[in-house]
Amino acid sequence: MTDTTADDTNEQREVRLAKRARLLERGEQAYPVAVPVTDTIAAVRERHADLGVDESTGEVVGLAGRIVHLRNTGKLCFAALQAGDGSRIQAMVSLDRVGEESLADWKAVVDLGDQLFVSGEVVTSRRGELSILVAEWRIAAKALLPLPNLHAELSEETRVRNRYLDLIARPAARSMVLTRAKAVASLRSTFADRGYIELETPMLQTQHGGASARPFVTHSNAFDTDLFLRIAPELFLKRAVVGGLERVFEINRNFRNEGADSTHSPEFTMLESYEAYSDYNGIADLVQALIQNAAVAVGGSTTATWTDGTAFDLGGDWDRISMYPSLSEAAGVEITPETPMDELVALADRLEIEVAHPIRGKYVEELWEHFVKSGLERPTFVMDFPVDTSPLVREHRSIPGVVEKFDLYVRGFELATGYSELIDPVVQRQRFVDQAVLAAGGDPEAMRIDEEFLRALEFAMPPTGGLGMGIDRLLMALTGEGVRETILFPLVK
């Protein structure tokens, strides 16, 4: 998986194990509990950014980092130390500073990839490179395996399977981690400014619900019962709204036992929020603010600059289109909630569109994706979905046969979804019954009747708007990368 063969790797490992043994035999540590670090590489570089060529500062510091370049030449040896943030500094180990024995030890035990501590004066070399003129050094952690070639591009397989190597070798990998952290911090800040509180809901559930998805199943020995990994936190967050927590959100891990591709991962991070006395129009305003604020936090502008240099405009007010009218216009034939099923099936068959779950709404959504989705360039809210594909959503206040739901499309993929929530427990029960019929018919994604949630609704949930947004997909929109690049440790076979 690295640039060396298995035989080369095993040979190098044996050599490095011998060096580890040599350290231990001399009473030194290959993995000390601590080293006397006094500063960071980044801070030293910032303080001395204006040093000229071959200058001395008189400042002595203790620094640690990974050796990413090593050159031993006679009486003077050089190593480039890299900190976790990617900042580097040169260490110069000279005979006149450390003595003959220490220089010989350096050449005998130090390898590329080792974590190293050095102490010495901050200087610049004859080439003007900021350096530590080493007076003392020691191994902070001995690397037993060689690093990949840091001058060659890592394969995607190596990057996702060995993310630690990716983080060492590739600035873009470290940047993605920082970008994600900034984006999530911005989301929390936007919610805080709007009076939301962050909650935590169960990841192990006795009944899966809150989305149409195939769940992962596990077993609890303590309770001797099967449990489901959460596919969504929705039904618990709504219980909180019933209890009087009127603005809540959660950033959580969800698990869906489905396919994996460039936009889907079986394990992913989801943001869900609920706001009492709002609706899907207010939630659309909220999600636009969340994403635009995250873009500014990450890149200083609502125009996101992707890793390939593309500028993607997330600014301004985003378009809002309705599903049925936009489909009718693109297809050249009027399609409404009353369009007979056989007409939808015939149109899908002519276009060779396969529909996994043959209900009316699924046909409408698949046809819409075929005709409309690929033409959406700017971020666009697609409003007003079929009622039979959205069992937890309120029916539209003025248009029969649809619900007050939007999907936000960015870069051609669904990034977020929002709702005017269904709060009538009688209607909700009937929706669950309809889903149970589908489940009995073999639909693995259909929801089951959740009596505990229905009981909570019967204590009166206020009118509420809800939001769901994938954090991994948000990073895709902000960086232009695929989903596996946005997840630090993606699931791989």
From TrEMBL:
Transmembrane segments: none
Domain of life: Bacteria
GO BP annotation list: lysyl-tRNA aminoacylation
Cofactor comment: Binds 3 Mg(2+) ions per subunit.
Recorded coiled-coil stretches: none
Catalytic activity: tRNA(Lys) + L-lysine + ATP = L-lysyl-tRNA(Lys) + AMP + diphosphate
Cofactor(s) needed by this chain: Mg(2+)
Compartment list: Cytoplasm
Chain positions recorded as Mg(2+) 2 binding sites: 414
Domain Aminoacyl-transfer RNA synthetases class-II family profile, chain residue ranges per copy: 185-490
Gene Ontology cellular component list: cytosol
GO function terms (MF aspect): ATP binding; lysine-tRNA ligase activity; magnesium ion binding; tRNA binding
Family to which this protein belongs: Belongs to the class-II aminoacyl-tRNA synthetase family.
PANTHER family xref list: LYSINE--TRNA LIGASE, CHLOROPLASTIC_MITOCHONDRIAL, LYSYL-TRNA SYNTHETASE
Quaternary state and interactors: Homodimer.
Protein name: Lysine--tRNA ligase
Naturally occurring in which organism (per UniProt): Amnibacterium kyonggiense
